[in-house]
Amino acid sequence: MLDREILLEKMRTTPYLPMKAKIIEAQMVTSKEKFFRIQLENKINLGHTPGQFVMVSIFGFEEAPISVCSSPSDKGYFELTVRSVGVFTDRLHKLEKGDLVGIRGPFGRGFPIDNMFGYDVMIVAGGLGIVPLRSLIRYIMSNRNDFGNVQILLGFKSSKELLFEEENKEWMKRAEIKFNCTIDRADSEWKGNVGLITTLIPGVDINPARTYAVVVGPPIMYKFVIRELLKKNIPDHQIIVSLERRMRCGLGKCGHCQVEGVYVCQSGPVFTFNDLRKFKGECHEKAV
Amino acid sequence: MKYAILKKSDLNHWLKHLKDRAKLYAVRKKENLFVFRPVKEVQDVCLDYIPTILPPKKYYFPQKEKLIKFSVQPFKTAKAIDKFEDFILFGVHTCDIAGMQCMDVVFREVPEDPNYLNRKDKMTIIGIECLKYCDQYANCTSMGNHVPRGGYDLMMVDLGDKLIIHINSEKGEKLVTGLDYIKEATQGQMDLLESTREEKKKIFKEEFTGPLTKVYDTFDKSFVSSVWKDVGRKCVACGNCTAVCPTCYCFDTQDELDLSLNEGIRYRIWNSCQMDDFAKVAGREDFRKGRDNRQKHRYYRKFKYPVDKFNRYFCTGCGRCTRACMAEISLVETVNSLLREEKK
Question: What is the domain-level CATH number for residue A232?
Fold first, then answer.
């Protein structure tokens, strides 16, 4: 059976049963974030779409939804980058190379990579938002000629929170990708831009009708970024966002991730701004 | 056979027969309220009752249900339940049957929920149609659930000293055939059923001040309304309303380790959107702040969202949320306030 069929069959028959998976690499990447490379049993490929998430299980500590940060073109394993913010993630941070976790998924709808085919792509990442977007960036890198101009705008609170620093440098070097990074507060180690990520947008040169803007960041960031993107005349359905919610089951049943009538775990986490406009008031990320 | 007749004096015989066939759950009195319980003594079974404290959902969607079993070292996982047992729910009101139909569409939607569906597969439903109002809290007539609308195997209607039983499935038919005390209904008895239902129409009147389509339209326009502020001010966020609701199915998962700290079980437990941490994420952002917004969400999950998604109202009209509310929030009054506000 193909890996994809195995995963679909599992989802159909035993959706609550996690698969055995092994951590094959683990390393702290900032003071708060840890990077994991994980291999599913029998080296099955996760076969996710960039933007999808998995439910990670540690027995005795339940489960948490975590975005995949590797590209489906990275075969034989997948990667997660996790900030320690609570009981579960604190426990996850204690795990090292060789330890086992349970994995369910991949869940949800990822970035519309097929629709983006042939378009210019502008990636806007705030803080941890770079984690799911790294999956998309890596995917674009390995399918570079499927896309038009690509630019990446990154924002972090401080230089200490910078993620994927080595890769950033690599992205910066690549001639066919425009790369820009800013931090909210200046410090002595930082030589680049200073200011909120919204300050980077007015200066970008884009052809709005031909551009997909993909935005991921903390909930507060969206409305400000979207406002700037709308000023640039990017159409609603070409502004792509990913919503953070409290997924518990991943199957569109348990109710925790619901925004009005929509289960984010199944219909999202990726939405277009056009989708967001339909919400009547419960979507924090919707621009006013 | 489509309709069968059972003398009430033979009811206990039949209950004994059912009890031998499968695990039997029915209603019994508990102080001045009623509950579904496994039947021990058939004479304890009540057919004349107001909606039970908890709906029968506890049997196909238990408060605490084993999802998987696991061991940490060596890493092992397995389904927690391999076999589900046959069971019969006896004497279920039509409102609660409507609740089952709602839950069915949710758990059948892909990705399906095998735990729920496996349990439902083993279930036989014997309903009883109400001929009088349970109390002032119900709104079953507005919801159209005061009369049977399928979803059962057998449906009983009280005809005085007899019960007429509508046979709605093969599974149901097997429970009434081959018994000398259950006979096919005569034309006279069918006529009596007809006239009984005609009488019932005089008693059951719509509880909302507008038709259901109007209620739906009103919800479409009432996302911002002072009614939610009023409801939110009263609400004490106890979660009673969602626990007793036959169509509330939100849940959480919980791991429990045994004393070895190596083996354990992952449970699914009922949860409530009325709890203040329900929509909070690890980064502390609360995506549904305030009791007013949480109550509004509950109402929208009955009168708007499932209608858009499944063309089905998820309020059955059982009245439990109003009956169980410590702050005396009334569903009928809330809906009628919205209708009134909309008219202005």
Answer: 3.40.50.80
* Contact between B51 and B139 (Cβ < 8 Å): no
CA angle (B280 as vertex; B278, B282 as ends), nearest 5: 130
Query: Across-strand partners of A101?
Result: A21
Cα–Cα dist B271/B245, whole Å: 12
Pairing of strands A211-216, A239-242: parallel
- In 3D space, the residue among B89, B122, B83 whose CA is nearest the CA of residue B19 turns out to be B89
Q: Which residues does B281 contact at the CB level (< 8 Å), separation at least 6?
A: A244, A245, A246, B287
**Which ipTM value was assigned to this complex?**
0.90
Is residue A223 domain-shared with residue A97, that is, in the same domain?
Answer: no
Alpha helices in B74-211 (DSSP H): 94-108, 114-121, 140-143, 170-174, 187-203
CA distance B212 to A139: 49
User: What CA–CA distance (Å, rounded) separates B41 from B63?
Assistant: 25
Of B113, B271, B305, the CB nearest to A260: B305
| Domain, as residue range, for A237 | 113-277
- What's A61's DSSP letter? S
CATH number, residue A61: 2.40.30.10
Please indicate whether, in this complex, the C-beta atoms of B107 and A245 are within 8 angstroms of each other: no
Work out the burial of residue B254: count CB atoms within 10 Å of its CB; fewer than 13 is exposed, 13-18 middle, 19 or more buried.
middle
Pairing of strands B123-128, B154-158: parallel
- The upper half-sphere exposure of residue B207, i.e. CA atoms within 13 Å in the direction of its Cβ, equals 24
Strands A33-40 and A53-57, how do they pair?
unpaired
Cα gap B266→B305, rounded to integer Å? 30
Q: Which of A11, A62, A100 sits opposite B111 (nearest CB)?
A: A11
Out of A77, A106, A135, a domain closes at A106
Distance from CA of A8 to the nearest CA of B (A): 10
Distance CA B19, CA B13 (A): 10
Does some domain include residue A285?
A: no
Cβ atoms of A265 and B109 closer than 8 Å = no
Give how far A195 is from chain B: nearest CA, Å: 22
Q: For B137-194, how does the pLDDT look when each residue is reduced to its tens digit (9 = 90+)?
A: 999 999 999 999 999 999 999 999 999 999 999 999 999 999 999 999 999 999 999 9
Query: Taking Cα atoms as reference points, which of A92, A208, A225, A71 lies closest to residue A135?
Result: A71
Quick one: A210 and A230 in the same domain?
yes
Which pLDDT does position A191 carry in this prediction? 83
Q: Tell me if A91 is assigned to some domain.
A: yes
More confident residue, A178 or A67: A67
Same domain for A223 and A128, yes or no, is: yes
